[in-house]
Amino acid sequence: MKYLYVILGACLAWPIATTAEANPVDTLGFGDRGAALGGAMDASDDALSAAAYNPASSTFAARITLGLGYTCAIPDIEINHHRSPMEYAHAVSGALVIPWQMHRDWRLALAGMLYVPLDGFAKIRLHPATEPQVVMWDSRNHRIESRAIIGVNYRSTVSFGVGLSVLGDVAGDGLDLSVNTLPGRTEAQANLQIDVPWRIAPIIGILVQPMPGWRLGLRYMGELSLDADIYAKSYVRVPGTSIEGDTIVQARGLNFFSPSSLSLALSMDIKQWTVSAQIAWQQWSKMTQVASDVDLLIRLGLDIDAISFPTMDPGWHDTWVTRIGLEHHIPLSRGRSIGLRWGYAYLPSPVPAQTGLSSFADSNRHLLATGAALVLPAELWRLSIGLSLQAHVFENRLTRKNPDFSVGEDFMLSGAVYVGSLFMRTELP
Q: What digits encode the pLDDT tens for the residues 38-66?
């Protein structure tokens, strides 16, 4: 019996991989327009999407505008030609922008957005770091995202916006367990506690219109890392034996990491067409921890009292992300119109070659996007219904392990993630 507890504790305490990823809004896009244009939105005049992209865009709102949407992401990723068991991501999103004219030359706007997974505010999935896993996708779409911004515009020429991205707060006792049995059987008690603090990242955006229909955008978003502390304690006693004591497992450093990013964007309205392009730098090199620190304390009258597993240096590198988008506006009768959209993005992987102990699977990705929106005017307000589709296609990546470590095996990553979004928006009178 005593060996059973030693094996159980060792399995729990092996270094475990955490969710190391950008936020789900940047990954899947926001709204019907942003998702269909491949995220090329940092110089857009779409005020309702300002909180998700460039906060300076909020000043383009003419009226109070609100939106509500649904997103579904279906992963079809294979490791060694076997489909990785990842859950679908289902989420609802909402946005609101409130503008008002402060002065003849000045306009102000407040805006916010919220992305809420339907299966919980955050999902933390733990795997041994040596096990091949799609670390950038396993849980990245399963967490809440909220932002609030304010924007100021001067003479419809220069706009400036600031905001905050907020993540947290989860804390409390997650599990209490007590088991009492007949003499000769095991008696145990257990307690699990998870503490997650608040984390806030700044967002800054500038938008300049050198001429009508031309927009230059610059956006900065700070690093966001939601560290967590998971503490599990159990008391075990086996009547009739000398086995009695505590088993304590503590995992520190679980985090939903979003890197600092800086983007430069250009958008041009040319007759019934809108062309957008941008390039963004993401500081993945600040990622200091992918696997968690784990401490294991066993006091069961055995020879082993404590085991500590330090984290490994991930060695991730910075990336440059490029995005382009194209939109065609088709006016119809009675004030109706249709917008057809296409987008593409190239997203290099920040994950280095996994030749050592860890087996974090990721590869360069091609984002193909398309969508359409129908505008229906009404007597009191204008309604828009948009649909967007995305395919995140992974480049095949073969990882060959260093045989000197004798841990893990070679693995091949391939596949894609398919995303569909439906978004409705309306302008109030």
A: 999 999 999 999 999 999 999 999 999 99
B/e letters for 145-163, b = 16+ CB within 10 Å, e = fewer, are bebbbbbbbeeeeebbbbb
Which stretch of 100-104, 213-217, 281-285, 405-409 has the lowest confidence by average pLDDT? 405-409
HEC states along the chain?
CHHHHHHHHHHHHCCEECCECCCHHHHHCCHHHHHHCCCCCCCCCCHHHCCCCCHHHHHHCCCCEEEEEEEEEEEEEEECCEECCCCCEEEEEEEEEEEEECCCCEEEEEEEEEEEECCCCECCCCEECCCCECCCCCCCCCECEEEEEEEEEECCCEEEEEEEEEECCEEEEEEEEEECCCCCCCEEEEEEEEEECCEEEEEEEEEEEEECCEEEEEEEECCEECCEEEEEEEEEECCCCCCEEEEEEEEEEECCEECCEEEEEEEEEECCEEEEEEEEEECHHHCCCCECEEEEEEECCCCCCEEEECCCCCCCCCEEEEEEEEEEEEECHHHCEEEEEEEEEEECCCCCCCCCCCCECCCCEEEEEEEEEEEEECCCCEEEEEEEEEEEEECCEEECCCCCCCCCCCEEEEEEEEEEEEEEEEECC
| CA atoms within 13 Å, Cβ hemisphere of 286 | 14
What does the buried/exposed string (b/e) look like for 223-258 if buried means 16 or more CB atoms within 10 Å of the residue's CB?
A: ebbbbbbbbbebbbebeeeebebebbbbbbbbbbbb
Find, among 11, 15, 17, 9, the residue nearest to 297 by Cα. Answer: 9
**What pLDDT band is residue 97 in, cutting at 50, 70 and 90?**
very high
C-alpha–C-alpha distance, residues 147 and 46, integer Å:
16
Scan for tokens 């992209």, then name that residue: 53
- Structure tokens that stand for 43 in this block: 């110089």
Q: What is the pTM of this model?
A: 0.80
Can you tell me the distance from the alpha carbon of 295 to that of 307, in angstroms, rounded to the nearest whole number? 6
Q: Which of 13-22, 122-131, 150-159 has the highest mean pLDDT?
A: 150-159
pLDDT at residue 149 greater than cutoff 70: yes
Give 273-325 pLDDT, tens digit per residue: 999 999 999 999 988 777 655 565 666 555 555 555 555 678 899 999 999 99
